[in-house]
Automatic annotation (TrEMBL):
Residues 1-52, 216-253 are annotated as: Disordered. It comes from Lotharella globosa. Keywords: Coiled coil. Residues 92-147 form a coiled coil. This is Uncharacterized protein.
Length: 253
């Protein structure tokens, strides 16, 4: 009753219905057919609510029910009409339709949110994979560098040991040989030079192999970097597309 009374008074303030301050020819006239909406009002001409047989008076009672069919002349003269129930039903129907549309819209937004959550999860997984690939690339690069440094160190150590052995042997020969052994000493030096040349050749081959392995590792790293760049671009495009979908879904109907 309080809600009906408040709605009735609000309706009166808008002056939508006939008030007691209007002339009598503007007031609804008695109906000859009671609650039948097809009944025609008597003399006085049609009003805005012709066919609307059920009203709520300002005092909260319902006109058109409980033995009081149609409009009452005495009521029209002495009180102000409150709410037209027929109009109120139409307004409530429109409100319910609007609420149904809003509920549908909300459901659509919730589904879009679920899709976005799934997309964000995919993005997180992609970022994790990219980080793991970058970490693997760095580990491979470190392995190649460590292998190269170890090989260079081993070669240098072998060269030093060979040189030291040659020097010791040469000193021993000089000590034990005489001038007649000069030819033998020269032959030994030639042999040593030949051995050193062979060693240098082998060293160059090893360095060449190491360089080729390093170039292959660099090419592999470059390809992986290109793949990571493509994955990042694809992720950005997918993110932009999802943002556009969210903006479209969030736009008012």
């Amino acid at each position: 009753d309080d809600v009906v009374t408040r709605y009735s008074k609000s309706w009166e303030r808008r002056n939508h219905h006939h008030s007691k301050n209007r002339p009598m020819d503007a007031l609804p006239m008695p109906r000859s057919g009671g609650k039948d909406s097809s009944s025609v009002p008597v003399s006085g001409g049609p009003t805005k609510h012709v066919g609307h047989t059920k009203h709520i008076r300002a005092d909260g009672t319902i006109e058109g029910e409980l033995g009081n069919p149609g409009f009452s002349n005495s009521t029209n003269r002495n009180t102000t009409h409150g709410v037209c129930m027929t109009c109120l039903d139409k307004k409530l129907s429109r409100i319910f339709d609007r609420l149904q549309k809003l509920a549908t819209r909300l459901d659509s937004l919730e589904k879009s949110t679920i899709k976005q959550d799934g997309f964000e999860s995919t993005q997180d997984s992609l970022a994790t994979n990219v980080k793991e690939m970058m970490k693997s690339e760095e580990e491979q690069r470190d392995d190649v560098n460590n292998t190269l440094q170890g090989l260079i160190g081993s070669i240098e150590k072998m060269r030093m040991e060979t040189r030291e052995m040659v020097n010791k042997t040469e000193a021993r020969i000089l000590q034990k040989s005489s001038m007649a052994d000069a030819e033998l000493l020269q032959n030994f030096r030639n042999l040593s030079a030949s051995s050193e040349l062979k060693e240098r050749t082998e060293l160059k081959e090893e360095i060449k192999k190491v360089r080729m392995a390093l170039e292959s590792a660099r090419a592999s790293a470059k390809n992986q970097t290109a793949r990571l760049s493509n994955l990042t671009k694809s992720a950005r495009k997918a993110s932009s597309a999802m943002d556009m979908m969210m903006k479209t879904a969030a736009a008012p109907a």
